[in-house]
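hi support,

uploading two proteins for the ticket. first:
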Amino acid sequence: MAHGIPFGKYTSVAFVSREHALAYAKAHKAEMVDFETLLHVTREGMAKDDVLMHTRFKKRAYPMGKKIYEKRCSAIEPTDFMELGELKEALATELPCGLLDEERLQALALYLWHVKRRGDLGEVEGKVEVGEDEKCPVCGMFVYKYPKWARI
């Protein structure tokens, strides 16, 4: 694996051979690490990114999205969508809030998905309750982050 910094704090790249990895690492001034080190660094980075993104969303995206929703939108039911991307696509193509630029579209989608949808989830039939500390018994992933995949 080569470990570099072009797209975020860390970027991970897998290679067919050690020679390819060394050539990449040299060309891009990247550090080569083993899988266990990469996994550890990635997990730490994801946890920090979650906190950072949530803080940013609370300060800017959620208030902007709420303002757009309350002033420009016809009724939207965020629980009708299984994924954030699906909701955002519907907002962009069906235009329930009119035509929005990318920044406002993203803010609205994030507000509906993370704020409005959470309040409405209690009314969804067959909702699976998953605690933040529960892991998938097969792969060890924290399942609360992926409600679409949580099953009884």
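and the second one:
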Amino acid sequence: MTEAAACLLWGSVCPGCGQPAARLCRGCAQAWAHAAPRDVAGELGGCAPQGVAAWAATTYAEPWRECLVSFKERGAWWLAQPLGEVLALTIAHAAPALASGVYLVSVPSAPRAIRERGWDTTRGLARAAAVTLQGVGVQVGVGARLRHARGVRDQAGLGAQRRSQNLAAPSRQQGTGTGAGSWWWMTS
């Protein structure tokens, strides 16, 4: 059965653009292949602590935005693997000297969001990135080292400024670090 026939029969569409496709359409897959990690610390309006690097896999625009929304809010769990690969690429680009290893710390989702989604999407994304990094020989740990210090609103539908305000210092570290020479990464 061809992909077009399968899409017609089952109603599958690309999460990036809505075109008939079993997964990502060719155009959106090409956009993923051209991800351009970039330093965004200066774009965060003072939310990043002084001296902490902040990187993005790409600009938060289509088809990325729709894919992330599909992953987090519409149950497109299969996107964890390709999103994890892009996150791993970003980590490798931001910190090329990974000899000491990487420890991925996911920004915790609100407990209500985890219940509604059926899983913790940010931790799932961190695990997917870890698999990719381990595949190229990088030592990786993944853990829940943050907890909510206060309530946060669901991020869905919030613009950049409202998202920034919503997440301003909502988490606190719990537990201990992973030792000297370790890298800490937070995914959201």
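thanks. also noticed: The longest helix spans residues 80-94.
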